[in-house]
Amino acid sequence: AQKITQTQPGMFVQEKEAVTLDCTYDTSDQSYGLFWYKQPSSGEMIFLIYQGSYDEQNATEGRYSLNFQKARKSANLVISASQLGDSAMYFCAMREGPRGFNTDKLIFGTGTRLQVFP
Amino acid sequence: GAVVSQHPSRVICKSGTSVKIECRSLDFQATTMFWYRQFPKKSLMLMATSNEGSKATYEQGVEKDKFLINHASLTLSTLTVTSAHPEDSSFYICSARGGGLDVRENTEAFFGQGTRLTVV
What we know:
The complex is a heterodimer of chains A (118) and B (120). Helices cover 0% and strands 50% of the residues of chain A. With 118 residues, chain A is mainly β.
């Protein structure tokens, strides 16, 4: 069963507008972590934001915020005030197991290509 | 912040030769390193997990003898693609995690720049 689902293969947003990238996950673990990464055309994976399953508040990092709805098993990324440089692939990922558990690993979604236009 | 450096960024090799890719953690000790493969316009597929000083754990379907992983020190892991063939052409990317108290180092947040391998 697919554990991370990103249903939007592509999204468009106008510069300075906000955009939400969807991510749903499936796990039976009580302790897990959710990540968002940005991958520009150069290929590097840039860490954006992290949300732990026990974190009570939604994570925020500058223009990025994570809309974490635990009961719905969703972890949507919200980018505010989009910039042209935000155009890239965005991947949602999940790590099962408690933080620091040495044998855990990341499972990635299929990604969403975001294009920001002027 | 934690930095992971991967080298080379691009490599072209002849079919039948071997290619080594290095992944270094520059400012923290990486107790665990992960190697991924990414096909064009696809997601990242975990190939193996390596812990310093022990044998790597390979994911199902990944050939151990084909993709040799060595994690000899806390700052360096290498992936060697042996007897490369055109179907091994892909984008390979590593990530590193430390074991310290820094939450970012501890949550596998940092990736190398990736290596684009082309086998001709």
